[in-house]
Design goal:
homodimer, mainly beta, 6-stranded antiparallel beta sheet, 4% helix, lyase (chains A, B), Ectoine_synth (chains A, B), L-ectoine synthase (chains A, B)
Amino acid sequence: MILRNLNDIRKSDQNVRADGWASARMLLEQDGMGFSFHVTTLFAGAELKMHYQNHLESVFVLKGKGTIEDLGTGKTHKLKAGDLYALNDHDRHILRPETDMLTACVFNPPVTGKEVHDESGAYPAAEREPVPAD
Amino acid sequence: MILRNLNDIRKSDQNVRADGWASARMLLEQDGMGFSFHVTTLFAGAELKMHYQNHLESVFVLKGKGTIEDLGTGKTHKLKAGDLYALNDHDRHILRPETDMLTACVFNPPVTGKEVHDESGAYPAAEREPVPAD
């Protein structure tokens, strides 16, 4: 049985930050669950264009509000606590948090957590590491 | 892109209830994510002895408090908001919510959701369906 605590993870190297978001990686590939589980904060005012080519991801909103634009359909959907979206088709999308948004995210396959800071302070993608896309 | 809302799921047949718990199944096997995602309430005072023989499960506590007894080690651990446990070894355990506990749960492989009520009102396990064990 694995036991973890969000505040502990946030103080550890399993907490990653980049422009517009911070993610506490509660479970990673090495934990052998077959998925990874992250508690991710999306900061108010950010515009996060993302495309996870190698992952499926679900996001459950715990706090805050914002929108998600589905670049495949052109539609924008409101997000608030209690909403979930799932990128079941590697959907290209733009997240626009209007307030700080706290989310619980699941990735399949699991994130490895082996990313390294680059010179800009961002976290480049490892071979299978999802990050906000250009 | 899949979009769901907790309150909608709670009004649907994807919300299941049994003695001591209720679970809103936000994502099921049929959604093709490779995991299922449930928002589960564990009711205060319940004693839930569980053993998921065919699934790995992670549970992140959103609200409330209680304990988990690991029947493999005999140890009891406190649980509160921000804590996560993961049954990475099909761990036999007993959950004892002291207050109503709201949790976000991930199952691998995903739950099918095809369970049927039995005469007692409980939900017998489908071939791959986790339920509280005897």
